[in-house]
Design brief:
Layout (H helix, E strand, L loop, with lengths): L4 E4 L2 E4 H4 L5 E3 L5 H14 L6 H14 L3 E3 L2 E2 L2 E4 L6 E11 L9 E10 L3 H15 L2 H8 L4 H6 L4
């Protein structure tokens, strides 16, 4: 089990608790906007995002401030809204890679879209930090970006 956790009211939840098979996508897209839109649509269909257009706009606004392409083929777009009560995570594997204006100019192959409530900024920052630390491991990142299906990808968060 992944040891990364974030406070949720009085209990802690592991990162694996935020990762849902239904929120994992393998995408063939041409832009970061397409990737973000596909993830937001997936979250909406699963009931995690009540206002997909508002959330999509919030994520794009955050991208305009500075790219969430953190380098190493990773992007962690994120936004907080008042409509959301719980943290959620959607993941995209982009086998072809997408230009994300990342700090190292490499194409992004893994996208972790985080959403959460505005009233829990501390938990939000902790989750963002912990996720970043988790995916910065080179071997883990390589295995995640080369996963062939959802089961293989999700198994990398176990053990």
């Amino acid at each position: 089990m992944v040891s990364v956790s974030v406070r949720k009211e009085t209990e802690e939840i592991a990162l694996i608790d935020l990762i849902k098979k239904e929120h994992l996508c393998f995408l063939d897209v041409k832009s970061k906007e397409e990737a973000i839109k596909a993830l937001v649509d997936t979250l909406y269909l699963q009931g995690a995002v009540p206002d997909p257009e508002g959330f999509f706009k919030a994520v794009l606004e955050r991208e305009r401030v500075i790219s969430t392409g953190i380098g190493m083929g990773l992007a962690i777009p994120h936004a907080k809204t008042e409509e959301v009560e719980e943290f959620f995570l959607a993941i995209a594997v982009l086998p072809q890679g997408v230009d994300w204006q990342a700090i190292d100019s490499l194409k992004v192959k893994l996208v972790f879209l985080i959403g959460g409530p505005k009233n829990k900024p501390r938990d939000y920052l902790r989750l963002l930090s912990d996720l970043t630390k988790f995916v910065k491991d080179e071997k883990r990142r390589s295995l995640l970006s080369s996963a062939k299906d959802k089961e293989e990808f999700l198994s990398l968060f176990q053990g």
